[in-house]
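[#protein-structures] MJ: dropping WSCD1 protein here for a structure pass
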Amino acid sequence: MAKAFFRLQKFLRRTQFLLFFLTAAYLMAGSLLLLQRTRLVIQQGSRGTSANQGLPVPDGMAGVGILNPRMLQNPRTGPRLLVGMDTMQEPALDQRHSPRWLVSRNLELRQLRRRWFHRFISDQEPMQTAGFKAMTSTAEHKGTYMGCFSDNSRERTLKGAVFYDLRKMTVSHCQEACAERAYTYAGLAYGAECYCGNKLPATASKPEECNSECKGEKGSICGGVNRLSVYRVEELRAGARRRRNVIYRGCFRAPENLTDTFPASLIQPNLTVEMCSEFCSKKEFPLAVIRGQECYCGYPTGRFSLRDGADGLLCSGTHNASSVAKGKYCLVYQTPVQDTRCTDRKFLTTKSKVFVALSSFPGAGNTWARHLIEHATGYYTGSYYFDGALYNKGFKGEKDHWRSRRTICVKTHESGKTEIEMFDSAILLIRNPYKSLMAEFNRKYAGHLGYATDRNWKSKEWPDFVNSYASWWASHVLDWLKYGKRLLIIHYEDLKQSLIPKLKEMVEFLNMTVTEDRLLCVENNRDGNFKRSGAKQKDFEPFTQEMKDLINRYILTVDEALRGKNFTGLPREYVPR
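AK: finished. structure tokens for WSCD1 protein:
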């Protein structure tokens, strides 16, 4: 017995020593790895001037892709380092109303940070042969390389459509986008921005000044700082013509003086929609207006706002110059050209004195509202979170710290006394909870633009999602009504139905003034780039009776709270099903 006990004691001593040794080795290895990574980042920072001489960084992109060693000590700011990745950071939700699957996101963020770090180290090689690559890579693309041209935000070289993809931009992608919209030239800048147009300046810049590598295509050049790599894509338009969309806007009463209303016109026997659209596209106008054999090009204006459509029968004889309508009505088509009167945006030149929130429950149309506000005011909106997908598509306020006060307002889904009282005022966007829940569930499984599959809707995740999120929809509104200092209530449904009046309310609340033409431009570009596309879910009722009873109780509670604060109650369509 004593012998067996002695053997057991000896074994435990060995095991204890082995565990101690392994633990110490593990901690030492981790410390060495952390020190090595920190040293590499510091070295990259000390070499930043020489290593990046061939790759200048614009003011608007400052700080993108640059790691501050102090950030390693602050896990809260970690997600903001994930620039150029399609990452989605969810709000820090109150545990009472947040679903269980959101709580474990920290592990995912740690893995994303690791991947970002390795990408950061590998992407810091200086581009010594940038000018040579710009000349050699053009042979790989279909368009004809025209040269390197200067460009700035105040006076664009190419004045047509603008596209962003701060992660996957390539020369071919830009060329195809411009060709499909009937433009002659495609220009790339900053490695990630695409501009379209039909006219070029007479003089070009030095070829070596276009030295920014394309974000989505190593070895190819996509312009530089205030420099455009320009390609002629007219030869691609024949193939793209099949895919270009000319949208019928309706029949409208013609203005009294068409030549004064529209800046360009054409009289052509046997005029067709395609002929008029092609003519207006070359002139870089978004509207093609046809009256008999007359073609007019222009924008929506106060004289011709496209708000009051007429009966289509009144335009039935317009094409053959019939006397049916006696020239009083005209057909209007949307060309592939983008209305660019409201696409210029920038950060505030001085810090805002009033800290304004754009608050909503997820799935209530916050991204769409930001699109409208940015294009109406000309200033970027910020975000309490970092959404790589939105940043990649041009919402540059995503990368700015949410408390910088350089943005016109800040997106948030937060609720609770502390989070709400940080803001001086807020636009509270409310949407029908049935629609909001479905929209957020779609985003969770298919991103900003897709739809969840039937399998997702019929899985266990959907009931769990409704049970977790329905109460959050109600508590979000109730908390803002209770703790918000100054509120403007906007119902998503009202904004959708009466865009201009509601947008004017929002702009006035933000203490901004905008022109009527700019508002009409926003209305002409109302959908933006985040309207859902693809196959919609099939016609079936995703809400069970139990779910409806739960949601309906919250609807009545919120409606009563709004009226108690002297706000208009919820729209009638919110009324329980």
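MJ: nice. The two ends are 78 Å apart (CA to CA).
AK: one more thing. The first strand starts at residue 144 and ends at 150.
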